[in-house]
Specification:
By secondary structure, this protein is mostly helical. Helices cover 52% and strands 5% of the residues. The model has no long low-confidence stretch (mean pLDDT 82).
Amino acid sequence: MPHLPKGDQMRILSVVAAEVADAHPVIDFQASVCGGVARIIRTRISVWLLESLRRQGKTEVELLLAYLTLNAEDLANAWN
């Protein structure tokens, strides 16, 4: 994809983002919220933040205790 013009790359990414949003309805992408990064739909908690914390060794229980608005399904969708 790096060899494609930026406009084509953006169109491809938009299509992929729409398909992912349909596959995981609790994950949302909106340019006006959190800079358009993937986030848990009813929060401002980004998927990249959760994944970063998980890579640093945080368990799902620790994440659920730290972010009380999340549930286990939210985390499962974020990992996917």
